[in-house]
Description:
Blueprint: E1 2-8, H1 12-23, E2 28-31, H2 36-41, E3 47-48, H3 50-58, H4 63-68, E4 70-72, E5 75-79, E6 82-86, H5 88-91, E7 97-99, H6 102-115, E8 120-121, E9 125-130, E10 138-143, E11 146-157, E12 175-190, E13 199-204, E14 207-215, E15 218-225, H7 236-247, E16 256-270, E17 273-274, E18 277-279, E19 285-286, H8 294-315, H9 319-322, H10 324-346, H11 354-369, H12 371-382
Parallel strand pairs: 1-2, 1-11, 2-8, 5-13, 11-18
Antiparallel strand pairs: 3-7, 4-7, 5-6, 9-10, 10-11, 12-15, 12-16, 13-14, 14-15, 16-19, 17-18
Helix pairs in contact: 1-6, 1-8, 8-10, 11-12
Bound molecules: arabino-flavin-adenine dinucleotide and P-hydroxybenzoic acid.
Amino acid sequence: MRTQVGIVGAGPAGLVLAHLLRRAGIDSVVLEARSRAHVEGRIRAGVLEQGTADLLDGLGLGARMRREGLVHHGIELRFAGERHRIDLHALTEGRSITVYGQHEVVKDLIAARLDAGDPIRFAVEGVRLEGLASERPAILYRQDGQEQRLECDLVAGCDGFHGVCRAAVPPGALTVHERLYPFAWLGILAEAPPVADELIYSAHERGFALSSMRSPTLSRLYLQCAPDADAGAWPAGRIWDELRIRLDCDLPEGPIVQKGVTGMRSFVVEPLQYGRLFLAGDAAHIVPPTGAKGLNLAVADVRVLAAAIAAFAATGSTDALDGYSARCLDRIWRVQRFSWWMTALLHRFPDADPFDRRLRAAELSQLVHLPSAARTLAENYVGLPLL
Ligand code: FAS
Ligand code: PHB
């Protein structure tokens, strides 16, 4: 088989890239290790930046998001018994976020691609890359027990943090920047109405808590926990009790339909390219989810990549492709900074001394008393301008 772009991974990065390439008249094949049901059922991110929602609209893929998504104009911070709303809409001249689950975005992107008759190969095995340093790279894989070879002009590594594409780059060709955090998030999905109409971020002395949602009847809630926490050691009663304490309010309970622990790390690999392989999304970087950036950063990467591929397809020039990495890394590091800052601001660090705790309290106070500090948070939260 032959295609212009071989895309490894049918997550937000791979699927948005495939749609952007289709709009530019460029053929691609998406290869996904898991089943369609698995990727569509994987509960992850929940907040779409203004730019991401607008992009889905622009691709004609935003209808259900506009029907079912929840547009929010603010978020609430809770700390030291206080409650402060950050008016995102007013602070960013009218921009907002849309709460719409990542798995819903993935469903919409998959349905649209398959309806258009474009290929997504699910449940592929043994993906490996060949000829990345040549002008004729290839992706080898097995499907239904049959060995397959996909000849490409370019390979997009959109296979997430644990994928094979980044690992296919020869040792020494990439530089890794990483920071691990001394905590994780216990996340639950509960059939219960959200605590409030908007998201609540709480910096409690017992640890961070976040109240989010997926719909008016489906809550998404998170608790800071030990980095090696076992979700099994968190029965429903303990979760609800801890949420009440940390969110400093009563909250409606309901059946917990999904529970899991997500580790926290900051990770960036440089550059994002090796020969004809281009890394995007979690394959290239990971942010702690505090700033709700993971999915949105993946989309920002592939917007740049799709434009560079279109220029290459139209002219044969690799200038835009050669500039992909540098163009994305500026935004990636600004988003890394924001995600690290939000994480440091809102979480309890086990080794924090009294000085650290007072600095954190001062940072929180800045947000309440200094409009420029609140504006900086708001501008980053709704999404930096797309390149
Ligand atoms: P993804 O990981 O979404 O997609 C990669 C795809 O590649 C997957 O479908 C995978 O099956 C496939 N793949 C992997 N190896 C392959 C191979 N060898 N061959 C073929 N396919 C392969 N972000 C937030 O903003 N908020 C959150 O609350 C949040 N929660 C998260 C919880 C968890 C458990 C995880 C892991 C991440 C979370 N994230 C969150 C971040 C997440 O949303 C990512 O940023 C987002 O999925 C990035 O999208 P992709 O880069 O497409 O990677
Ligand atoms: C979510 O709804 O999953 C969510 C919202 C905001 C975050 C992280 C996750 O910062």
